[in-house]
């Protein structure tokens, strides 16, 4: 089992930046694909970004492409989401997730059903 804990959320003005962290414990995530998802009030949870086991391949939702960057430090068992040029529509609870099959697939999925482990989420609020 792996436990994921997100941090770094908060209140920021439009145009600002935040860096989310997802710290894993219980086992190494160095062979997992990792993803970030978000859920805004009244909406379904949606894909934001994902990376393969070594961070060499990344995927982004069109809505965040060019503004958000996913990265990972396997030595620290941590995944990051750097969010720049934030917009009010980025307001949501952000979740990180782990897919333990990542090493065997070599890539990462953009759909939630592939991810077995989830954090509790961190709130990001962007004011206009």
What is the structural class? mainly beta
What is the H/E string? EEEEEEEEEHEE
Number of helices: 1
Q: Which regions are unreliable across 5 or more consecutive residues at pLDDT < 50?
A: none
- Name the beta content range: over 45%
Helix content: under 10%
Task: Give the tally of β-strands.
Answer: 11
Mean pLDDT across residues: 96
Distance N to C terminus: 40 Å
Using only CA atoms, what is the Rg? 13 Å
Shape summary: globular
Instruction: Describe the sheet with the most strands.
Output: 7 strands, mixed
How would you describe this structure to a colleague?
It is a single chain. The chain is mainly beta. It has one helix and eleven strands; from the N terminus they run E-E-E-E-E-E-E-E-E-H-E-E. It has one helix at 102-105, and strands spanning 3-7, 10-13, 18-25, 33-39, 46-51, 58-60, 68-73, 78-83, 92-99, 117-118, 122-127. The longest helix is centred in the C-terminal third of the chain and has 4 residues, at 102-105. The radius of gyration is 13 Å and the shape is globular. It starts with a strand and ends with a strand. The mean pLDDT is 96.
């Amino acid at each position: 089992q792996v436990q994921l804990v997100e941090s770094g959320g908060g209140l920021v003005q439009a145009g600002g930046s935040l860096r989310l962290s997802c710290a894993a414990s219980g086992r190494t995530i160095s062979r997992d694909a990792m993803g970030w998802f978000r859920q805004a009030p009244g909406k379904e949870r949606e894909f934001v970004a994902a990376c393969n086991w070594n961070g060499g391949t990344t995927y982004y939702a069109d809505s965040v492409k060019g503004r958000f960057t996913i990265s990972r430090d396997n030595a620290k068992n941590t995944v990051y989401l750097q969010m720049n040029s934030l917009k009010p529509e980025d307001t949501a609870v952000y979740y990180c997730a782990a897919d333990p099959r990542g090493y065997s697939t070599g890539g990462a999925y953009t759909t939630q059903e592939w991810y077995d482990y989830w954090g509790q989420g961190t709130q990001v609020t962007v004011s206009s």
